[in-house]
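Q&A log
Question type: sequence-to-structure
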Amino acid sequence: MHDVVVPDVVLSSGEKMPLIGMGCAASPLPPPDVLTSIFPEAIEVGYRHFNTAEFYGFEEALGRAVSEALDRGLVESCNQIFITTKLWCTNAHPGLVLPALKNSLQRQGLEYMDLYLIHWPLRLKEGTEGLDLKGKILPFDVEGTWEAMEECSKLGLAKSIGVSNFGTKKLSQLLHATIPPAVNQAMKRIYSI
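Response status: OK
Response body:
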């Protein structure tokens, strides 16, 4: 295998993030054996950044793939893989952020997350499944939730923290935080252009 060079960017946290990554969302969810084979193949061809979320249902398969990549010598250490995961909206509450991150780390077999994002700038009732949000949206404490994200960073469980799908109004509430967001990830499907 030849080395593939993917450009990276240095985030405000000081961490380097590969600019090209593999998004890990699909509907319907492929069978586990398919997932387990996709990710090591992606690593073999040069992908080093994987973007997942609790909501996508891919975290365990990605964790197994990183372990397999290490076993096969495709990468020498977990430090060569950059993983982004996201806090789902049912956990977007100050008291739920840290437990949710710990669960994501456990599912992936990791000690820390490279980048941990608030998935959407809203909070949903516990147990909400799918994207039918009628009657399920709760008040969102953006600043309190962000302070819990900062705690994840201070504990070393997330090297960088950020947001996803935030508009300027919500994002502006965080710009003077102790640790400002390193990323505001915005979804864009190439096929919808």
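Response note: The beta strands are 8-10, 16-18, 22-23, 49-51, 82-87, 113-118, 123-124, 137-138, 158-164, 184-185.
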